[in-house]
Amino acid sequence: MAPRFLRSDLQTLLESTTLCSRCIRQAHPRFFSTSPRPSTRLRQSMFRWLNGPGAAFRDPLPGSTNYLNAYDPQGNLIRARAARATTRSTGEEDPRTAGDEGDPDGSDAALGRNHLEQNIAGTKPIPKEMADDLMPFPLNRQFRSQPVLSEELRDEIYRRINQEKKSVRTVSAELGVEMQRVGAVFRLKTIENQWIEAGKPLAAPYARAVGAMLPKTPFVPGTRTPPLPHESINDLPVHSATTRQLFHPVAESMHFNRESAARAFSRDLLPADKRIPHPELVDLAKVAAQHRGRDDVVKARRNELEQQEAAVLNMRREQKAAQEAAAKKIDTPRWQFRFENVKAESAGRDGRAKGGVGARYGIPPQDRKKGQIKIPTKVE
To answer: What's the pTM?
Structure first.
């Protein structure tokens, strides 16, 4: 049986339905419209900046970074303006700004536009970046973009190790690049050459695009050293034995030097001048100071240090080969199990010796543990 509605109830239902549809039309007057929306003030400001000062960021500057912090709000290159001001004060014509055309009064806006056009065309060198020009994020003024190795410098590192058969330590000292970075460059260049021989595609366009955005350490082929060192190569690494608190009393008549400080932390810890990555540079500096003008003495000492390094490397290879031969190996379809003979006495009297089982995973120090006596009780 069909539902029955009273006449008054049906009229109320129709009025409420009409009211709801009217509310929807008033809330969304252009919900089904296909006409373009009117341009907002923020959108107009965005395109005004893109067509005005922001036009300097459409193309990278050859041989230089192109960060937002290097320009003023009008789109003028700040260091180019500074070079122009220096030229005006000295009364000489700067070759970097010679031939600038633009406004008759030589305004900074015309200078910035001409520098931009000439640098994109590659017809005029750009001034070297300053510290403020290497800030890619204007709101983070503590961050500076660090330089990366240029392609010429990476090729030179690979050539000296592969062709001249020099060690990683020697190449690091000659080119001013850290040893870990030298080893990484050699391994990556080796993989790259293997890919080229195998015909695999390389992401060269991507590498060039990213490299154009970063400062680079240059290298002139045919020279022995780059014009500027890439990084500090002789920083002292932090040893795990020196990260704990230590109270070491010393007699007034005792000479406390680097070796004494190393023995205070650990009996097997070398002093700071022997734990640096390049201790041979200190030795060479001492020899050069004692024998000024005697290049043959310095060269002989350098060759002696290289022979010592080669002997140490051979000893490490022999030790590693002996460990591999002493280990018992059992191969399975998925894993290789290795068994070694150990002794309980290897852990030492306190169970914290280096030869103990599990020493590779680290043992927490006792300097911050409750109940430990931290104040010295005697003077040795």
So the answer is: 0.64
